[in-house]
Write a structure and sequence with these properties.
With about 220 residues, the chain is mainly alpha-helical. It contains two helices and no strands.
Length: about 220
């Protein structure tokens, strides 16, 4: 636009210069005309017909000059119209390119934002998957520890139960042993008591036999 404005300024300046030159030529022409008229008037008597002829020629040149001036202005106006149209067309094309540039820039930004959003979503999805795997690992670890603790607790309970069963069997064994010893001791005591009783009875029978024998002897001796 700066270049176009410079061309336009040069065009205006050239137009003013052309008008100035045309006015200068016109002034010179008028001065020359006055001078010619002065000369012609001086030679009016001798050169009347020539003066008319000269005026006719000059008027013809002036008419041609005016027509040429109008033609020049017309040509200049036509060129100016073409120039304005071309400037407007260039501005239109530049604006169209700028609009396309802006639209393409927005489209590129949209595409980049879409890729960035997809990247962020993929990152969140990957983190979600990793967190899910991590949570599953943690839960599996807790479950494994729970199962191991359950197995260990069952093992401890089974061990205590086995010890309890062994202790119960051992207590029963000891009680049975004590009972057997008690029974054996009781049978032995009864056996001893019976033996003492048998001896006592045998001794009593022996004493009675002795006493009876003594009595018999006493009776026999008495007789």
């Amino acid at each position: 636009m700066y270049i176009l404005n410079a061309y336009y300024v040069n065009y205006i300046l050239n137009a003013y210069y052309v008008n100035y030159k045309l006015n200068a030529y016109y002034v010179n022409y008028k001065l020359n005309a006055y001078y010619v008229n002065y000369i012609l008037n001086a030679y009016y008597v001798n050169y009347k017909l020539n003066a008319y002829y000269v005026n006719y020629i000059l008027n013809a040149y002036y008419v041609n000059y005016i027509l040429n001036a109008y033609k020049v202005h017309y040509i200049l106006n036509v060129y100016y119209v073409y120039y304005i149209l071309n400037v407007n067309y260039v501005n239109y094309k530049l604006n169209a390119y700028y609009v396309n540039y802006i639209l393409n820039a927005y489209y590129v930004i949209y595409i980049l934002n879409a890729y960035y959003v997809n990247y962020i979503l993929n990152v969140y999805y990957v983190n979600y998957i990793l967190d899910t795997y991590y949570v599953n690992d943690i839960l599996n670890a807790y479950y494994v520890n729970y199962k191991l603790n359950v197995y260990y607790v069952n093992y401890i309970f089974n061990a205590y139960y086995v010890n309890y069963i062994f202790n119960v069997y051992y207590v029963n064994y000891k009680l049975n042993a004590y009972y057997v010893n008690y029974k054996l001791n009781a049978d032995y005591v009864n056996y001893i008591l019976n033996a003492y009783y048998v001896n006592y009875k045998l001794n009593a029978y022996y004493v009675n036999d002795k006493l009876n024998a003594c009595y018999v002897n006493y009776k026999l001796n008495a007789y």
